[in-house]
Specification:
The structure is a homodimer of 427-residue chains. The first copy, chain A, is of the alpha/beta class and 427 residues long. Chain A contains 11 helices and 23 strands. Chain A folds into 3 domains: 65 residues, SH3 type barrels (Roll), CATH 2.30.30.520; 206 residues, Rossmann fold (3-Layer(aba) Sandwich); 122 residues, Rossmann fold. In chain A, the strands form 6 sheets. Chain A has an 8-stranded mixed β-sheet with strand order 9-6-10-12-13-14-17-18, with helices on both faces. In chain A, strands 4-3-2-1-5 form a 5-stranded antiparallel β-sheet, with helices on one face.
């Protein structure tokens, strides 16, 4: 397929600008909709149009693609809104990371742009300025699947700075794919929080009628402004309709659906509370904010892998890392033929923690002989920790324990709400 | 720790037999309960006692352990029950695999023994003989974490034989850890089923007051006896109380909790129906049984791995297999830095299928540029297939497609209910 040298030229030739309604004919198929501006994350040879049903579609354009102008848009100006500082209101810091929710929608074109300033946010979700003074900056712009330990450290540093400079709370809009990893990481990297640290995402981008971006961001700002929580939490839609959002503990939350707006669930515990009708209702015990200052603990050992057990897992598929999280079957098992490989790694110094691919429930290595054999060779039972949280925690524990015993002790100690008390949830 | 040479001798010296109440003193801790017989799966230096709260505990015995007889049990005879053949009733075949549910409870001692004959089952769950004539044999005795493709093939062969010899249906008691893998495997390995093939398990063993073994087995036999289903299904507790069991399609079911009795869930679809008050109620469409004969399709290529994406996944952790199932984040993403490794493997001939670690929902590689890049290098979107089912299906597809295109086509075709129609479940 030949690629056109310059899509912009092609559009200009036809007198087409962003916001115009166009018809694209490509390999016999016809697409009609509003041309929306090039998104920072889109490929260069792709144009995006918003179809009548509200969905966006990306179309790869080559020289054979026919693009026609249907009608010009009526231009509307972006209404600027001044953001005055009100000394009677608390200040909340928003730190952008590139997720959908940090974007603002250009109402003329329906396009999504990353919000890079408080003004952009004021344009997108003006309601939040009624709740608090907003300080906003962008830490980085990445798809969340590309966010790695380096970014966790960068964010932790930024959060500590904002809180220590006097912000009442911090809101971090974040792509949803790895939001749970980041919320767990910040939970271990930050101590003595002087206010709520609220991660928030959107499952549907701001340009779709079903978007959850505005509701989630408002609720997040509400939690950051009005509560005395001293923990890292995640605020996301609580159900498919728009009635409320849930406040999840950062170490207990998981994206459990690819696309639903209520994809995020608290696992093996209850959510801390909810936000409903602009009111924050906390129903579970939580750690209250400290007097500060916030301590940044920036040590992580990234050399931790996750291994998913299955009937076809082979010894040589289990990598030689400083730490390994096993996602075993059931109560925490792997095929017995793999135990010698695990023993070999443990003897070489690898710390291995067992979690369950069931996701829900607690591992228990005392029930069956496979489990007891795993205990005997030194596998650490991961209690009811999420595999993702256990992975991040092991990175943290490896950087803090002097030896295997200390790392094991840290892994079995509840540091940031990641382990539920046995008496409460044991089955 | 010194190990005692012979636990049996030690018990005999104290005049202790199975069923007696004993007190064990071990490292300062005291355990009192009924001694239950050595379980086939227990370690040799372990005795198991049933505590007063109904739980069993395994205790490692060494020479320092003190064991005292508290009182002798009153012996009760095992009541034999004759199993007459009733020509008016259908016959159901039960094929044992070593799971908890295939065990029978010795009511004198509370011990669990693997049931190896119809007589054992009659002793354990006599109710099933009221429903149908029972033919029983044991295919193998393994913990389900050790059940591998070789056993799937053995089971498929046994099922085909039983159905082709005239059984109305087949019931397979199976350990719960990998029950979903086996049910998926049988779904692809067997065609033109002449009756229901019902896998069933127990989350709590038969000796515990909370056992689900009897209810589940009765319901499974009911489904195998009274329905015209021509599919592989899984019958398990539907909720934590004892009100009903659910009938799950074999390719859509997953163990979603380590210990709850209602751990098994149908994912991305509805269960086919339920069994309540001894009545089978089917509520969803299903494949009806064929006139037969059952076709055994015994080709599998085991060289398929599962890789769980995470921020710390490294290129060298992605093994060089004929097939790979990726458990991506969100709609089906991996860190962009890993795409060159995937492209290298695909160029060398690896078939890579994307599923989601969200478990619920459908992958969609068209929404973001990471997904489009994965499509471009040849990653196959796994629709809404469970990762475990996709793994088994890829083993099957690799053994049936002549080339990449054929394997890809098979993976994207709904063969055994593993892919839900887009119109119904797409979000």
């Amino acid at each position: 397929m030949k690629k056109t040298k310059n899509i912009e030229d092609k559009l200009k030739e036809s007198g087409i600008e962003n916001g115009d309604t166009i018809r694209v004919e490509k390999q016999g198929e016809i697409y009609e909709g509003v041309l929306i501006p090039h998104h920072i994350f889109s490929d260069k040879d792709i144009i995006t149009i918003k179809l009548k049903n509200g969905y966006n579609i990306g179309l790869e354009i080559d020289d054979e693609t026919d693009i026609k102008l249907i009608h010009k848009s009526k231009k509307k100006e972006r209404k600027e809104r001044k953001t005055f500082f009100n000394p009677d209101k608390p200040t909340v810091s928003i730190i952008g990371t590139g997720g959908t929710i940090a974007c603002y929608v250009d109402y003329r074109t329906g396009a999504v742009h990353p919000a890079t300033s408080a003004e952009d946010l004021a344009f997108s979700v003006p309601e939040i300025f009624n709740i608090s003074n907003i300080k906003a900056h962008v830490a980085f712009q990445l798809f969340s699947e590309d966010i790695a330990p380096a970014q966790w450290l960068q964010l932790a540093e930024a959060v500590a700075k904002e809180l220590n400079q006097g912000s009442h709370g911090v809101v971090i809009p974040h792509g949803t794919d790895t939001l749970g990893y980041t919320s767990a990481a910040l939970s271990f990297l930050l101590r003595d929080l002087t206010g709520p640290v609220v991660l928030v995402g959107a499952q549907r981008s701001s340009d779709r009628p079903s978007t959850d971006a505005a509701l989630n961001l408002q609720a997040a700002v509400q939690v950051a402004t009005t509560t005395d929580i001293g923990e890292v939490v995640v605020v996301m839609h609580g159900e498919s309709s728009d009635n409320y959002t849930l406040i999840h503990r950062g170490t207990k939350v998981r994206k459990n659906h690819t696309s639903r707006r209520d994809a995020f669930k608290t696992i093996n515990d209850k959510p801390l509370g909810r936000v409903e009708n602009n009111e924050v209702i906390i129903t579970e015990p939580y750690r209250k904010k400290s007097k500060g200052p916030v301590i940044l603990d920036d040590k992580l050992d990234e050399d931790v892998g996750i291994v998913y057990s299955s009937p076809s897992l082979r010894a040589e598929d289990i990598p030689d890392r400083r730490g390994l999280i096993l996602m075993g079957t059931g109560l925490g098992h792997v095929p017995n033929r793999l135990i010698p490989r695990l023993e070999e790694l443990i003897k070489k110094g690898t710390i291995i923690v067992m979690t369950s691919q069931c996701i829900n429930g607690r591992v228990n290595l005392n029930v069956y002989s496979t489990g007891r054999d795993l205990l005997r060779i030194g596998v650490i039972p991961g209690e009811d920790m999420l595999p993702e949280t256990a992975c991040v925690k092991l990175m943290w524990a490896l950087a803090h324990g002097e030896n295997k015993d200390e790392v094991e002790k840290l892994m079995l100690t509840n540091i940031a709400g990641e382990i539920s008390p046995r008496s409460r949830w044991n089955c």
